[in-house]
Amino acid sequence: MKKYVDVIVPLPIAGQYTYALPAEMEEKVQIGCRVVVPFGRKKFYTAIVTNVHYAAPEGYETKDIEEVLDSTPVLLPKQFEFWEWLASYYLCTLGDVYKAAIPSGMKLESETLVVYNPDFEASASLPEKEQKILDLLSNDTEQCVTQLEKASGMKNILPVIKSLLDKEAIYVKEELKRNYKPRTEARVKLADSGMDEARLQQLFNDLGRAPKQLALLMKYIELSGWVSRETTLKEVTKKTLLEKAGGSAAVLNGLVEKGVFEIYYQEIGRLDKGMLKTTDINPLNPAQQQAYQSVLQCFREKNVCLLHGVTSSGKTEIYIHLIQEVLKAGKQVLYLLPEIALTTQITERLKRVFGHRLGIYHSKFPDAERVEIWQKQLGDEEYDVILGVRSSIFLPFKNLGLVIVDEEHENTYKQQDPAPRYHARNSSIMLASMFGAKVLLGTATPCVESYFNAISGKYGFVELKERYQDIQLPHIELVDIKELAHQKRMQGPFSPRLVKEIKEALERKEQVILFQNRRGFAPMIECHTCGWVPKCKNCDVSLTYHKGLNQLTCHYCGYTYQVPRSCPACGSVELMNRGFGTERIEDDIKLIFPEARVARMDLDTTRTRTAYEKIIADFEQGKTDILIGTQMVSKGLDFDHVSVVGILNADTMLNYPDFRSHERAFQLMAQVAGRAGRKNRQGLVILQTKSPDLPVIRQVISNDYEQLYYDQSAERQIFKYPPYYRLIYVYLKHRKEDVLDMAADAMAAQLRSGLGSRVLGPDKPPVARIQTLFIKKIMVKVEQTASIAKVRDYLLAVQRAIIEDERFRSLLVYYDVDPQ
User: Fold this and answer.
1) What DSSP state is assigned to residue 756?
2) pLDDT per residue over 640-667, tens digit each?
3) R_g of the chain, CA atoms, integer Å
């Protein structure tokens, strides 16, 4: 009987596909293995097998699998169960989850190869661009489009390729591109494995006239331990041999040609090897010890526990003791952090305790390294502790015992685009429940939903109110910049009080952090005469000016523009910068304090993993006096010599059209403030705002989280927001605004007929056009007692009905469940 397999393809397509299994592959295929399948007209993809069976599908002809890539599964049964839950809960496809979960190096995809046609004869002379492509192909007859683009220096090469295809000067071939190549190392061995001393003596004599070759051979004999041959010979790498003998590659190649040596290649991992000195864990102080015992007590009755500890109370030490307990029981730990910047600091602390039992996983790692961690987790010597950002929930765990979600309130745990738009905190609670594992949520400023679950008894709840070594919480001082601006006393974005404190801190050789939640130089440019503001041609947003690059950038689609010399609307040359981004603050602070060493930490300066590490290391070692940053600087970083923190404009966080804006602002300000005064003295925070009377500002100053929670929760209960209701945002996108309006109205009407007043909208989001697509948003509010599964099924049924309408064929619909 013919066998078939069901597979997931890494494409946003609902459902799974069935392929036929050729007889010669029947023994090789297992559930969870990767296979290469043809898809569409000429494309090949790596799919993952989810089922092997004998039932031929009805309604379509099955294609055969091309190749089996694995002898053992790369997707474990528990992981697949987790994938299915994610796809169902977050209203996306299994293909979306597959794309997000697995490193690129494990997903082979087609890349178009262009092949020169040797039989082509031109009837007339070709245009210059086409001739250039043919010349490039005549030297190297098979090249991919990206290679040709690079070599020719042409920007948009596809029309040229299409024209040559039409003339049959070239043809296209699809070939699988294998992204991941195992790392190999060249090693050297004697060509004659059974060589005895007499033969070796003969070689020494023969090489008498080639002293460099003789020296290389003698060094190999020494390094490989050939003389004491009771044990197997040590492997000698080509690099080590040449370094130790002071020889050159040409000398070595001479010995290979004479048949003395052979060079072979051995696969080596990219991950840390070698010895690591580990130390014992620090003892806990009485307050930490009490919190630690309380957490263990909570875990006896509840699966999730919230640890609410003030900034700098030593939560990480408690985590380390808990990890130690779980490892003793022979289980694995996943330690989640919201930001890559944090992993660089905490890695050192955990490495000192857990050594090679610790693996680190995040998106700034090269893809090849992520592939190796994935494969290591599938093997017998997997890491016991994984430290990583949100994507580490996808790693293959076999025996998970504990998940720690540090800074659980952070919105970076929520994936925004593309799908799956999952929340790592909520997803990790589900993942842990599949393993019967425990979850610890740790933070100084809990998210309102988590605090609600803790005080209502759904989660365990432990508080840690003392800072480590009894350091006082920083003193927060309010500065009303509206009043100061009227009196013309502001120096750019800095109040006189802040300037004075920075000056004094620098004189005392202490450090300063300045927080501004906008990157770039100026959030916008404006014409002084007519008020014209440059906007992105693809999105409904004003462009941000980046002075260092001398360009205007759209922070939504990434498109860049030249800075205009004059206003295109009225011709005026008076173009002014409006607002302050981190780049401008860096410039301004250098003018006021030319002697100070200033660094900036935002998305523009931390594109790579090493950039993060360098900025943090320089600040830790005192090579930087003033660190300017966006929200990255607020996240749990520990610096010993920071005495002053400046929050330059609290209002930009408060005036945001979102029900969470006050909660967010409180969290950000409290976290930034927590960076001040760590080791020996109370720190000072200067909080600049134009609205000093807002309750949330007072709550930040008195560090009164409880009051913030009661205010927010009362408001949310009235207006039907989380934690009392669950939210699902439905987004619709289309190139034509009129088609979008019709589709959004039709969909909202259908949703209302089934869900009634739970449906709000459609209306335009704050940014109503991104990357040339117009956007509409429908909000669905579902009470906690309603069946969320039924709501999801209804949403998908309505979506199908809308998309089947001829008019809305190219409409995009996607969902954001539990938006942050």
Assistant:
1) G
2) 788 999 999 988 888 777 899 999 999 9
3) 31
